[in-house]
Design goal:
single chain; Rossmann fold; binds adenosine-5'-triphosphate; binds magnesium ion
Length: 390
């Protein structure tokens, strides 16, 4: 019998009618993800999804890592099936977990019996296997409260399973369960993290990036596409819409007082994001804004930027410190790319004294000199669409 991967589902959403659709979505997401690592059978039983090799070309290590990046999975472990008798279970545990058993200081055995015809109770099984392992590995003390290692046994209809240690999964909800949104992706540290956070809540994402050649370079655009690529193990395949933004920025520079540049530019980003969302049927706009981080992220400024859209603007980083954002960025694997030097359209024409407490009426009045509808329509028409594969 061969080793397989077991993914535990989140508990909270498993209640009631949600359960079926939650599981179906999770299984199809897992299936797609592990298909890059060989042929697998993916199926669920009792709040666990089994990822079982179905060929010789399976890279189980890669599949294991992939499973840990699938939202909706709270923990991942490996397991080796064996015959349903105590002797076979003991021998399997000894060899399969020999590394863990010979280094841990304390352990316990926990058993679960789905097959009620199995002759021993769960407690008896744990005691017998625990006793044998204790004898075979003198380094191990029994500790039923806080053991370093828990050897988990399961007796199912088709086989007994010896589990390896459980590792944390990505948590959250399966991608797609939370609807879809447009995420504003720049080349910075914040927006890949805000995208990841919403994907974690099950939101499927389409990225929108504003690009201002010749003020921003081809390299800056490539960097954003690379960030999107680095998000795919978590967020799945993604499309990035590259929106030409130069003309809008130049028009703002011509028509608006300098201290309003950034604010009006951000209003244009939001308008275009909403147009993209409407086109897709997406239900929200995601940004990496964080309260007080820069002048355009004060409460007054945020009020002015969201004034031009009716969709909810989701800002998952709003209450986080930069250090917390950086920590997450390292964890998800986008940090090293984010800190590569680059220009963003936000850093072009930055005012020397941006308004931190803008008044909405004033901003609207200043902006009236621009033909927002026509400028947005032209930018929309000039978009480039890039598909980022998993
Ligand atoms: P980040 O690290 O994400 O670039 P930031 O701290 O530099 O964020 P801003 O430049 O003010 O903050 O941008 C705030 C948010 O606006 C970003 O997190 C992102 O969601 C969006 N944004 C900024 N520039 C762009 C761009 N060129 N294309 C798409 N979205 C952008
Ligand atoms: Mg930025």
């Amino acid at each position: 019998m061969q080793e397989m991967i077991l993914c535990k589902l989140g508990e909270v959403v498993l209640k009631g009618l949600n359960r079926r659709s939650f599981e179906d979505k999770l299984i199809s997401n897992l299936r797609r993800r592990v298909s890059k690592c060989g042929n697998y059978r993916v199926y669920s039983k009792q709040s666990t999804v089994y990822v079982e090799p179905a060929g010789d070309d399976c890279d189980l290590n890669a599949a294991f890592d992939a499973c840990r990046q699938v939202f909706g999975v709270v923990s991942v472990s490996r397991a080796l099936p064996c015959g349903k008798d105590v002797r076979a279970i003991i021998e399997t545990a000894k060899t399969y977990l020999s590394g863990e058993l010979s280094t841990a200081k304390s352990f316990k055995v926990e058993s679960k019996r789905a097959d009620k015809t199995f002759p021993l109770t769960s407690i008896q099984l744990s005691q017998q296997v625990g006793g044998a392992l204790h004898q075979a590995f003198p380094n191990l003390a029994v500790d039923v409260h806080e053991p370093e290692l828990t050897v988990f046994l399961e007796i199912r209809d088709d086989a007994a399973f010896v589990h390896g240690p459980a590792f944390a999964g990505a948590g959250g909800l399966p991608l797609g369960m939370g609807g879809s949104a447009v995420t504003l992706l720049s080349g910075g540290i914040d927006s890949p993290v805000s995208s990841w956070m919403m994907a974690k809540r099950g939101v499927a994402l389409e990225a929108v990036h504003f690009f201002s050649p010749p003020y921003t370079s081809e390299a800056a655009k490539e960097k954003v596409l690379r960030l999107a690529k680095e998000l795919t193990p978590w967020c799945g395949r993604m499309r990035v819409q590259i929106v030409p933004f130069t003309e809008i920025q130049e028009e703002i520079r011509r028509k608006a007082p300098e201290d309003f540049f950034t604010l009006i530019m951000r209003r244009f980003m939001m308008r275009i994001a909403q147009l993209c969302a409407e086109e897709l049927g997406a239900k929200a706009i995601v940004t990496g804004e964080c309260l007080g981080q820069v002048a355009s992220q004060t409460m007054e400024a945020l009020r002015c930027t969201e004034d031009v859209v009716s969709l909810p603007v989701l800002r998952p980083l709003i209450g986080m410190d930069k250090e917390e954002i950086v920590r997450l960025s390292r964890k998800i694997g986008t940090f090293d790319t984010s800190i590569l030097p680059y220009e963003d359209c936000c850093t072009v024409f930055t005012p020397r004294h941006p308004k931190t407490k803008p008044h909405l009426d004033e901003v609207r009045a200043v902006e009236a000199a621009l033909d927002a509808g026509a400028l947005c329509a032209k930018a929309m028409a000039g978009r480039e669409f890039v598909r980022i594969k998993l």
